[in-house]
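User: I'm putting together notes for a lab meeting next week and I want to include a structural view of one of the chains we've been expressing. I don't have a solved structure, so I'd like a prediction I can at least talk through. The sequence is below, exactly as it appears in our construct file.
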Amino acid sequence: MSRYVDANCKLCRRERQKLFLKGTKCLSAKCPIEKRNYPPGAHGQSRRQKISEYGIQMREKQKVRRIYGLNEKQFHTYFEKASHQKGITGENLVKMLERRFDNTLFRLGLAPSRKAARQLILHKHFTVNGGSVNIPSFLLAPGDVVQVVNRSKKLEMIHDSMKRVRDNQMLPWLSLDKANLSGTFLQIPERTDVPLQANEQLIVELYSK
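Assistant: Thanks for the context. Below is the predicted structure for the 209-residue chain, given as C-alpha cells.
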C-alpha cells in the first residue's frame, strides 16, 4: 500500500486550509499555513490560470481524502459503498468516514490527530466494547464504547490530547468519559453536525463522470 512520506504541512498548504494533520501544531502559531497560505513549490505564489470544473472537483476530493488520511483506492471504495446505500451519496460518504475508529478517537480528543490515532490503534492501546481492535478503518455502530486499555492510561500522547477537549464542544453523536478515558459512539451523525468544510457533491460529480 502506498504511503505519503513528505511533510504533512505541504498538504494543508496545497489545499489552502488547515486539515489538522499535525495535532497541536495545527492550533499553534507554528502552523505554516498561518504565514504561507499558498501551495508549496517554486510556483506556489505565482498567478495561475482559472481552474477548470474538473480541477475544482479534483481538489475537493483530494482535500477530503487527505483529511481522513486515505489513499485513492480506500477512498474510492468508500464512495462505491456510499453510492449503493439509500439516501444522498455524498452525505452517506461523510457519515461512513466519520464512523471510522481512528476518526472517532480524534473527534473524542483521545488522539491529537487521525494519524496518531491510527498508530495507537495498531499498537492495541484501545478496545471496542471490551474487545481488542487494531483496525483503524473499523466502522463503529451506535452504542459502541471505545476505551484506553489499562496499560496505556498513562500515555503522555493521550493526556496531552485530552487537554484540548472542552465538555461543551463535544459533538452531538459522541459522549466522552474523561475519568475512565472512554467514549461512546451514540449515533450515526447527521451531515449538518459534521464539522467538515467540504462540498461532497463535487466528489460525487467527479466519480460519476
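A couple of points you could mention at the meeting. The first strand starts at residue 126 and ends at 128. The helical segments are 8-15, 53-67, 72-83, 89-98, 101-108, 114-122, 156-162, 200-207.

User: Perfect, that's what I needed.
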